[in-house]
Amino acid sequence: MMDKQVEEYIALESDSLPHLTKWGFTFESVEITCSKCGKPTVDNKYRFIDYDKVTRVIGFGVCWDCNIVIKAEPMQLYDDGRYLVKKTDGWVELNWKTERKWLMKIKSWFKK
In which domain, by residue range, is 87 found? Predict the structure, then answer.
């Protein structure tokens, strides 16, 4: 029987980068870090779900060193600079302009 995260990873149709949101933010790259060894994953897949003032990012990556598929914590990035990361105990609000400890690191810029 296949692991649920592996099944989700295989089934996910990945969006391409760069990704321009409806509200003018460009995702150039998305990095996912292995929860076991802390190294960046490879063969990443991600889905961007755009709304008028928020974009939700869902991602998976493969860590070949640990031989696992990592499901990154879902996040939502808002046009006013807030982002929410879903943790086991609920959504945690952070500010992407100052916070740098993301499971998913975003390198991007505004195009307005």
Answer: 4-105
User: Would 71 be classed as within a structural domain?
Assistant: yes
What one-character DSSP code corresponds to residue 33?
Answer: B
CA 111 vs CA 10, 20, 66, 92, 105: distances in Å:
32, 9, 38, 27, 19
What is the arithmetic mean of pLDDT over 102-110?
Answer: 39
Number of domains in the chain: 1
Query: pLDDT per residue over 46-62, tens digit each?
Result: 999 999 889 999 999 99
- Three-state DSSP class for 8? helix
Q: What is the pLDDT of residues 86-101, one digit of tens each?
A: 888 888 887 655 444 4
CA distance 48 to 50: 6
pLDDT confidence tier of residue 1, bands split at 50, 70 and 90: low
Which residues make beta-bridge pairs with 103? none
The Cα 46–Cα 71 span in angstroms is 10
Per the domain annotation, does 9 fall within a domain? yes
Q: Bridge partners of 70?
A: 61
DSSP 53: S
